[in-house]
Amino acid sequence: MCPNHELLSAWLDDEIPSPWKENMARHIEGCKSCEAAVAKLMSVREAFAADAADLDAVSEKAKNRTYEKLEYRLHKPFRSNRAIKRLYIPIPMAMAAILAIAVLGFALLASQRRNSELRMAVLMAQEASSLVSSSLGIETVIDFVSRQSGAVNININLPSDVFGSARGEPVIIKEADLKPGSRR
Amino acid sequence: MILWPLLLAGLLSFPGWSQEAVFPEPGSLAAIPPAMLEEALSISIDASINIPGEDIKWLVREVKYTLPGASISIKLYGSDSAIIFTLTPHKRKKPDLLLIAQGQVWFKNKDSGVGYRTSVESLSINYGEKVLFYPFGANPPEGSPLRVEIVIEQYKNKDPKNPGTALPDQNSASVDNGTNP
Fold first, then answer.
1. Where are the domains of chain A?
2. With the CA atoms of B27, A148, B39 and B162 taken in that order, what torsion angle do they form, in degrees rounded to the nearest 10?
3. What is the mean pLDDT of chain B?
């Protein structure tokens, strides 16, 4: 008579005491149906073991994540009242800045208005005068004259290391006056 | 603290400030008052480095416009030297121009630190006549290859229909290292 699945499972788990354990082993070796049942039980047990290993790995990751969160919360910088106060300190400065912008804006608008009035006065004076005012363009003349103090600057970058030790006196000369034979 | 950048941005974006950016470049034809174009002078500047026995090694060509009596300065900067050449053309009847030319040359000496030399000349020249400036001498024993060539002409004598032939061509330099800003 073949043992049932529970007995076979118990034998597989080494839960059957001697001498019945050895008797069952001898029976399973000689019984094909019991051998197949044991093989099936072993495959099921291996599948469970693999799943358990996976579950262990997942639970290990979850555990690590939990520890990380706990660690972060434990070491998170504490927002003190001092930090909150620092947010409130610039408010008078902000008010002052807004006031300054407003005052400056009005001042600039006023100066612009004065400039436009001055330009209108210049235009009216040009129209009234008998000079060739329309073609003179006094504004461009004023611009040109205002830039005279700085002259016209041309900046040229020289290549490096071209002069060596040649350091003669600077010479300014007309090409026509350059002596023949001297290097140009 | 956060508001200071906003304050600056607000001030800079104010239309009153942005009007400054529309002025024409000094030395350009647009900077000459239209009514004075008849009097304008074109100044062609060729700064070149000649090594004896070799072709021109380096050349920068510029054309600027000014009025009689208004000076222009040519500044040349090198790794071991700085040169300022200032020209003030004045109109005359014969010859055409009196040119006041001043040169200032700073250079690094191996032994004595910084050297400084100056030169000034008043030259009577005609339009189209070449004036040469040798910052390190015209013919020292070892030769100084740097040369600045100036040609002054009347703008009104240029051919307005074909300015490419009459005006000195800024792009025709045989060798130009493109260092001119």
1. 5-75, 90-132
2. 10
3. 76
